[in-house]
Design goal:
Layout lengths: L9 E4 L7 E10 L4 H12 L7 E12 L1 H16 L3 E5 L4 H10 L6 E3 L2 H6 L3 H11 L3
Parallel strand pairs: 2-3, 3-4, 4-5
Antiparallel strand pairs: 1-2
Helix pairs in contact: 1-2
Pfam family, one: STAS
Organism: Amycolatopsis xylanica
Protein name: Anti-anti-sigma factor
């Protein structure tokens, strides 16, 4: 009998976040074979009560990001937007992540940050516009 164990290629952890924010930290590979696992975890987040205002996907520890993974991120972006949840993506300093997003142009579509802290602390675009208008007396 030949038993082989393939190591888990994608790990998803949930560090503590600020109130109203859920963080999912990814380690490993995000590709066609692992997007279903992330979809399952995001499904749990969307089913939470109360639903978080912001979901932060920390990709800073990914070693590989395929086109299928990028497509999944775009679909998650659209899906969370439909649920009125802000999706923020942390790219970290990993060339595999940032390079793949830049090569496909998705860095301009997704709400990307260098660190988890900056993603958590950033206000939403609507809040920013409201703050600017309030400061201008509009």
């Amino acid at each position: 009998m030949n038993i082989s164990f393939e190591p888990e290629r994608l790990q998803v952890s949930r560090p503590l976040g600020e109130t109203g924010t859920t963080i999912l930290a990814l380690t490993g590979d995000l590709d066609a074979g692992t997007t279903q696992k992330l979809a399952h975890r995001i499904g749990h987040v969307l089913a939470m009560d109360p639903t978080p205002e912001t979901l932060v996907l920390d990709l800073g520890e990914l070693s590989f990001l395929s086109l299928a993974g990028i497509r999944f991120l775009y679909a998650a972006h659209a899906g969370t937007g439909a649920e009125c949840i802000r999706l923020r993506v942390v790219t970290g300093c990993r060339p595999a992540v940032l390079g793949a997003l830049r090569a496909t142009g998705f860095h301009a579509v997704l709400d990307c940050y260098d660190s988890t802290a900056s993603a958590v602390l950033a206000c939403g675009r609507a809040e920013f516009v409201d703050a600017v208008q309030a400061s201008l007396g509009s």
